Structures are given as C-alpha cells and as structure tokens.
Amino acid sequence: MIDSFQSLGKYSPTVSLWSHHDFRALWAGDTISQFGSTIGRTVVPLLAAGTLAATPWEMGVLSASSMAAFLLIGLPAGVWVDRLRRRPVMLTADFARAALLLSIPLAWWADVLTLAQLVLVALLVGVCTVFFDVAYQSYLPSLVGRDQLVEGNSKLEASRAVAEVSGPAAAGGLAQLVGAANGVLVNGLGYLSSAYFLLRIRTAEPVPEPSGERKLSREIAEGLRFVFHNRSLSAIVGCTGTANFFGGITSAVLVLFLVRDLGLSDGAVGLLFSAAGVGGVLGAVTANWWNTRLGQTRVIWLSLLVTQPIGLLIPLAAADWRIVFIALGDVALAYGAVVYNIAQVSYRQAICPDRLLGRMNASVRFVVWGAMPLGGIAGGLLGEWLGVRPALWVAMVGGSVAAAWVVFSPLRTEREPVAAEH
Asked: Looking at the whole model, is its pTM more than 0.85?
C-alpha cells in the first residue's frame, strides 16, 4: 500500500514540506481546527463552572465525558480505519463535530442549555475525535513519507502550540465579551474550516488492501499484540497513559482552582492557559534541533524527565505574585509534552507497517486517552474529598513520575527507530 501511494504523491525527503501542496492543505485545516478546539476546551469548562454553577464532581464528569469515547470505541475504531480510506473518515468526523458543537449556542439562545447537554455533546464529539485522530495519525505517513515524519509532526505541533497560546486568551476574552456559550461557535466553525482544507487535498488515496482476517476481535488483537509485544512501544504507552491520567485530574480541578480559590476572571484564566501555549510553541520550534543532536529515541525519555517536575510549582500558586508559578509550570509542562509527543508519535509511525497503522494508533490511544476520563473522574472525587488544591498536588506529583516508564526501557539505549517487518 505504501509503494502505490508513493507513486501518487509522496515527495522526496530532500524537498521541504513547505512545497508539498497536500501537506499544506492538511496543515492549514489542522491549524484552524486546533485554534477552534483550544477555544472550546476553555469556554466549555468556563460555561459549566460559571453560568451553570457545576460542582467539582460535575466538572469531573464533564472532563471525563470528552475522553470517554477512547475507552468505549477506541479499539474497534482502529480496525475500521484500517479498512477504510482515511480522508473520508476525517471529513465525516469534522462535519459531525461542527454540528454537535453548534447545538450549544443554539440551546443557549433558546434558554434550554443544561449541563446534561454539555456532557452529551462532549461525549459525542469525543466519539468523532477518536475516528479523526486515529485516521489522521495513520494518514500522515502515506501523505508525506516516513522520512519526513519528524518535520511533518513538528509543523503540525507548532500549529497546535500557537493555537494554545492564542486560543485560551481569545476564549477568555470571548467569554467576558459575548458569553461562553457564544464562544463555542468558533470551535464549531473551526471544524468546518478543517473539512474545507481536507477537501483541497489532490492526491487520490488508494483503497486499503483487504486483510485476510476480517473478524473484528482478531484484528483488534493483532494491533494490541504489535504494541504490547514491543517493549519500547509498551513503555511509551505506560508513560503517556500515566501522564494523561494525572493530566485528567488537573483538567477536572484547575479551572475551579483559578476561578474559585484564586478569584480570577475569565479573561485572566484564558491568559494563564495561554502560557502553556508559549511552552508548546518553543517545544515545536526546537524539537527538530533536539532530535538531530540527541537522537529521536533519547529525546522521548529526556524531555519528560527534565520538565515534568517543574509542574510542582502550580499547586504553590496564590492570588498574589505567586500566580507566576502557574505560568512557569504550564510553560515547562507544555514544552516537555510537545517535544515528547513529536518524538514518540514519529517513532510509532516510523516502526509500524502501514497496514497496522490504524490499529496501532487506536491501541495506543485506547490506553493513553482512555486514562484521561478516569483521571477526570478521580479529579472530581479528589476535589470533593480533599479539596481542589490537594487534588492538584496529587496530579502534579503523579505526572512527575510518569517518565520512569521510558527512562527504564530499551529506549534509553536506542538512538533511532527501526521499522518492523511488514
């Protein structure tokens, strides 16, 4: 399948992806979509915490609902993505997410918006995101070639990081000016623009070659075996899943910490969240430099080992000069996460046969994204039981030890990824 796709549109690794028309279309759509998504991730919790007066437990449920789909359908989604052309899957997901999100401002205007609707929309958008993300990570190697994966992932992560800088600040401003519900409009329109640019990709995507095995359970098992019989991949899954679990705890309580404990306005919350985007931009810009000098696999474990402990500053913040601790912690965590993600996603894509890309990505996402709703539920319970600040301490301490998975793995002695047999 890779060879047939190469003849249709893969560029030489000596040519920059700046000159790759189809990658530019994918990149443009992703950039606008990411901007809308970062606004949505800020205004929806603000809408729940402020206008709908959600409790810590309800905030945990809302946080968990957005990621629950990875646990519910993550594994079969990988099989279906491997059976289908990937761009149509991404287009369907974009149109569905736009329609779902636009229902929120419509309900608000009709004065019928409830927390139950927010939870349901978050859950269904999460289902669409499962299919989009699995198809998206499986589509890139065929579109640009495996020799350009680090460059491609770096550019895509740079866009996401820029969105993380500007999106939350814009979201906070929108929430103050026109209301959080109206801010969700931007999120929905972002997905429509993503679909528009996907439609502009010229390369004809070939129909996937049918596998000899068509039983869903056996195809799922094949993907799981590929991931968990590889010690390096399983270490990446353990590391990312642990970090995401404790990140889910953070997502459940951080807005409450900022709004209720520290008394910050919606605009100030948006500006603080933008600090993470600054770290993400720096990470995306420097990721290639680190990969070139240290080796791709070495970057995977070093990036988190150095940056995750700095997140321990966040629970020390207070409504005075110590508010800077949140910005410093966010910058460090985002920097390390982006450098880590570029390295580990490129590593996974490089070593996996094309016919297994969907199932490999789905198997990884099933665990690492499935950990987030569990973390969200845990965060809600901890926030109710211990209080919001102690729950943040649990999250930051737990995140600091996540790197142990990859530090004590074969990745510590590898330098470059080696492709598995097809």
From this structure: no
Highest mean pLDDT among 68-82, 257-271, 335-349: 335-349
Average pLDDT for the chain: 82
Spatial contact of 293 and 343, defined as CB atoms under 8 Å apart: no
What residues contact 256, with CB distance under 8 A and at least 6 apart? Answer: 49, 56, 59, 383, 388
pLDDT tens digit sequence for 271-298? 777 777 788 888 888 888 888 888 888 9
Contact residues for 210 (Cβ-Cβ < 8 A; gap 6+):
83
Domains of the chain, CATH where assigned: 18-204+215-412 (1.20.1250.20)
Q: What is d(CA 37, CA 184) in angstroms, rounded to the nearest whole number?
A: 9
- The pLDDT value given to residue 371: 87
Whether residue 22 has pLDDT greater than 80: yes
pLDDT tens figures, 194-234: 899 999 988 777 776 665 556 778 888 888 899 999 999 99
Q: What is the DSSP string of 161-198?
A: HHHHHHHHHHHHHHHHHH-HHHHHHHHHHHHHHHHHHH
**String of b and e for 5-26 (b: at least 16 CB within 10 Å)?**
beeebbbeeeeebeebebbbbb
From the number of C-beta atoms within 10 Å of its C-beta (0-12, 13-18, 19+), residue 393 rates as middle
Contacts of 327 (CB under 8 A, 6+ apart): 272, 275
Q: What is the CA radius of gyration of the chain?
A: 20
Question: Is 72 exposed, middle or buried, given 0-12, 13-18 or 19+ CB atoms closer than 10 A?
Answer: middle
* CA–CA–CA angle 179, 31, 24 (5° rounding): 155
